[in-house]
Input
Amino acid sequence: MIFTSASANEAGRIRPFTAKYSVENDYITAGVAYLSLLPDTNNNFDLTLRTKPKGVFKLSSKGSLREQAKMPSYNEPYNSFSYSYQDKGNRKRDYTTIFLRDTKKAKLLKAGKTQTITIDEPVTDRLSTMLVVMNELQQNNSFSAIDVQVLEHAKMRTMTFTNRGKETIKTAAGRFQAVRIHRGSPNSNRETVSWFAALPDKAALAPVRIEQFKNGKLTLRLELLEFSTVD
Output
């Protein structure tokens, strides 16, 4: 069965969900990843990405990462009020960003120190860029490109997301006609390609494959294994 997404109305809607992905590259399978968009006890929403390594990666804690963005609404992607990054293998990399949007400021909390940063709206965190793209696809399945301001650590960066058209891809969860989105930044040797598709039986839009590259070489691939919506 091939799941298709031919137009904006057929591209699926953003809905709270949980998903499981394989984590690999062209040589090894390093573990699994869990992506979720779920309500919390305060009627806000958490977008969370966790990677769980296995084998030698599990023994070294390498690849055990957790990112989380908190927001009042997932249909307004530039409204996250916090973002946290945790690396079990290297706690020195852990940090949290608090967005104080009313004052156009953000606070970076890292290694027991606090740094205040001036921000220009609209701006989001790097995990919530996924929701920016999903909202764009939800409204306009054939958009060409969008520039997104992202606060990474203490720096404002511009990421460009380019629509490369539709492709049929296969994962353990099925075959999908997906929209391929390329992400890049000026003066960066890193890029990401993501495939988003509708899951008609779930009436939901989701990333079904994500590939990360450095200097043109694949470093990481996530492929969808399981997906379920949450009412």
